Amino acid sequence: MKKHIAIVLGTRPEIIKLVELITRLKSDDRVKTTVIFTGQHYDYNLCQVFMDDLKLPKIDKNLGISGTRKEQVKKMVSNIISFIKENKVDVVVAEGDTNSVLAAALAAYYTKTKFAHVEAGLRSFDSRMPEEWNRVLSDNISFYSFAPTELAAKNLQKSKCYKGGIVLTGNTIVEAVQKNLEQAKKSEILDKLNLQPGKYAVLTAHRQEYVDTKENLEQLIKALGRIDFEIIFPIHPRTEKMLKEFNLLEKLKGLKNLRIIEPVGYFDFLKLSSNSAFLLSDSGGIQEEASVYKRYVIVMRDNTERPEILGTFGELTGYNAEKIVDAVSRAVNSKGKLDNIPCPFGDGKASERIANILVEK
Question: Which member of 87, 153, 213, 276 has the greatest number of CB atoms within 10 A?
Answer without folding.
Answer: 276
